[in-house]
Write a structure and sequence with these properties.
- By secondary structure, the protein is of the alpha/beta class.
- The chain has one domain (24-162): YbaK/aminoacyl-tRNA synthetase-associated domain (YbaK protein), CATH 3.90.960.
- It has helices spanning 11-18, 30-33, 35-43, 79-86, 99-103, 112-118, 150-156, and strands at 23-27, 52-59, 66-72, 91-93, 123-126, 134-141, 144-149, 160-162.
- Strands 4-2-3-5-8 form a five-stranded mixed β-sheet.
- The radius of gyration is 16 Å and the shape is globular.
- The N and C termini lie far apart (56 Å).
Length: 166
């Protein structure tokens, strides 16, 4: 009989454990499955609006001025609105090819948990998630997420809520 092996915890899960924050692991791969991942999430009892993507932005073309905005997968970000909210002249998506050097993560694995702990970039959340009790964010590995209380995550990463669209 084959032995079922449990995946090793990610560093982000260890950070949550260190801070005694309760979470559950989920797997759905938005990068490979797109909207199909939302159906998979629904089948697991996870509301799609509660699954957040982590967007890394560069402010004012300054190579040292990065911000992170987390918002539901199905929403888009308005860079002009977000820049105005943050008091920045302009915001641009960080270069995907350089993400590993900027955040320590590849595209699809960026997580506010690790970026906050390792890089100290300011973390912002779409104000529309305020009413959600639980949210899911990447666990630092493509296709792997952690689900936790929204207030616990915001407190852990010292996050703030902003308006990201009109």
């Amino acid at each position: 009989m084959a032995k079922k092996t449990k995946e090793k915890k990610t560093n982000e899960e260890r950070i949550l454990d260190q801070h005694q924050i309760a979470y559950t692991e989920n797997t759905f791969d938005w990068i490979k499955q797109g909207a199909g991942a939302l159906n998979e999430a629904k089948a697991q009892g996870v509301e799609p609006k509660s699954i957040l993507k982590t967007i890394v932005l560069q402010a004012n073309k300054d190579p040292k001025d990065y911000v992170v905005i987390c918002l539901p997968l199905e929403y888009e970000i308005d860079l002009k609105v977000s820049a105005r909210e943050l008091g920045k002249k302009q915001l641009h998506l960080a270069d995907n090819k350089k993400l590993i050097n900027i955040t320590g993560y590849i595209h699809g694995a960026n997580t506010p948990i690790g970026i906050s702990a390792r890089k100290g970039f300011p973390i912002y959340f779409d104000e529309r998630i305020k009413g959600l009790e639980e949210i899911s964010v990447s666990a630092g590995k493509v296709g792997r997420s952690v689900r936790l209380k929204q207030v616990d995550l915001v407190r852990l990463v010292k996050g703030s809520y902003i308006k990201v669209t009109k």
